[in-house]
Amino acid sequence: MTTPILSATNVSKSFGGLRAVRDVSFEVRPGEMFGIAGPNGSGKSTLFNIITGIPFGPTSGEVRFKGERIDGRPAYAIARAGLCRTFQKDAEFPDLSAADSLEISAVYNGRVDRRTAARRADEAFALVAFDGGRRDMLSSELSVFEKKQLMIASALVSRPAVLMLDEPASGLTRPEIEQLDALLRNVNASGVTILLIEHVLALLLSVSQRLLILNQGEVLAEGEPSAVVRRPDVVEAYLGKRSQ
């Protein structure tokens, strides 16, 4: 049996009397695209936060990456070990070019010199199919989709083993979501394991090998995506109970 590259065992997070994540367990296999979905407020982003230590770890439970426990480690150490993430809100250096933004990310997270950083930036741009003619544009002048590409590329310059993406399709048009689908497949084909939180179920169903559904901070279902989303309890969690 393949050893999971990432696993969470009974992880929980409490904020005072509120238990936002409750005893969540799952495993991600090397090379997999693993989807996470659930209604608003179900604990998806909180789960990402406690796995990566940004901005907090779990209240209880354990997280393992490549077989080693990482809960309790500082966030920068987790990232440099090869577990990187993006966020719902696009994050860029607005007054820097796209190319300079990537090189800074490579120098800081990858701890490499400028020449190596420039090479890694070129590789990351290629992986996300970023228009070469726009690399010298200010990040603030890029389109919504280009900012998504830049954010993903900023994580890729560190050459992560696992890339965690928090709602990358947010704000995108249908054609752009199709481009994102191709982008994710390309990154995954390069050897990067992907965890994907997404409200756009069509994208999740297209790219995910397995799907985890959270509801009210707990695991509601896990398994083959098309089967999971047809379960009555999953439909009810999203749409509510049918009136009699």
From TrEMBL:
Gene3D superfamilies: P-loop containing nucleotide triphosphate hydrolases (3.40.50.300)
Molecular function, one GO term: ATP binding
Origin superkingdom: Bacteria
Entry-linked InterPro entries: AAA+_ATPase (IPR003593), ABC_AA/LPS_Transport (IPR051120), ABC_transporter-like_ATP-bd (IPR003439), BCA_ABC_TP_C (IPR032823), P-loop_NTPase (IPR027417)
Residues annotated as domain ABC transporter: 6-241
Keywords: ATP-binding, Nucleotide-binding, Transport
Pfam family, one: ABC_tran
Database matches in SUPFAM superfamilies: P-loop containing nucleoside triphosphate hydrolases
PANTHER family in UniProt: CONSERVED COMPONENT OF ABC TRANSPORTER FOR NATURAL AMINO ACIDS, CONSERVED COMPONENT OF ABC TRANSPORTER FOR NATURAL AMINO ACIDS-RELATED
Protein's recorded name: Branched-chain amino acid transport system ATP-binding protein
Source organism of the structure: Labrys monachus
